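Sync notes, pocket subgroup
Present: LS, DG
LS reminded everyone that the earlier model was apo-only. Rerun requested with iron/sulfur cluster included. Inputs:
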Amino acid sequence: MIRYSSNDMAKLGCNECDGCSACCRGMGQSILLDPYDIYRIQGATGLGFAQLMQKQAELHVEDGLILPSLKMQEDTDACGFLNQEGRCNIHAYRPGLCRLFPLGRQYEDNRLWYFLLEDACRVQNRTKVKIKKWLGVQPLADYERFLISWHDLRKSLQEQIAQRQSDSYAQEINVRMLRIFYQNPYDTMADFYEQFERRMAQMAR
Ligand code: SF4
Ligand code: SF4
């Protein structure tokens, strides 16, 4: 597997999906939403976490940790943000995992790497694009630092839940984490990363 940094080029260009919306359908609960996704969607649509949970999002359990994911709609098996023309209604503010596809992320020694998910995109002969440009998040260094912190926190909470083997402890952690990082609304006019750091400190108390 080839590992890329955000400054590398990879075969990603798919002519802006050109009428294809395969990645927005039938994805189950695989498109997890992180706090930055919630902040951006809230800023763009005004939908807070509780409102998102009414239609576009649902909760997913991964190694004991409860995290929100995009919800495939019952009637269409498509994302609730996909419109009738097969385009994303929140394209400019779409979640990080939607931006990433067909790349995956790998975390190692406090660094973030990217790799191509082979055969994930239906388009053959994709063009080379710089990963930084593909992701379209600025400043990327701050975003990557956030992703590493968030990944480490998730892993640490999952380890704590596994070690304790206690349903009430798992529930306590999940209720606290969801309240601190998801349910408490973000100030979308203020910097995200400062708010995230404050919430990390609150979680550690
Ligand atoms: S399969 Fe490729 S072209 Fe189709 S929606 Fe996904 S990324 Fe776009
Ligand atoms: S948020 Fe947009 S890009 Fe992501 S799955 Fe939904 S419709 Fe597709």
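DG: The first helix runs from residue 35 to 45.
LS: The chain has a mean pLDDT of 96.
Action: DG to write up.
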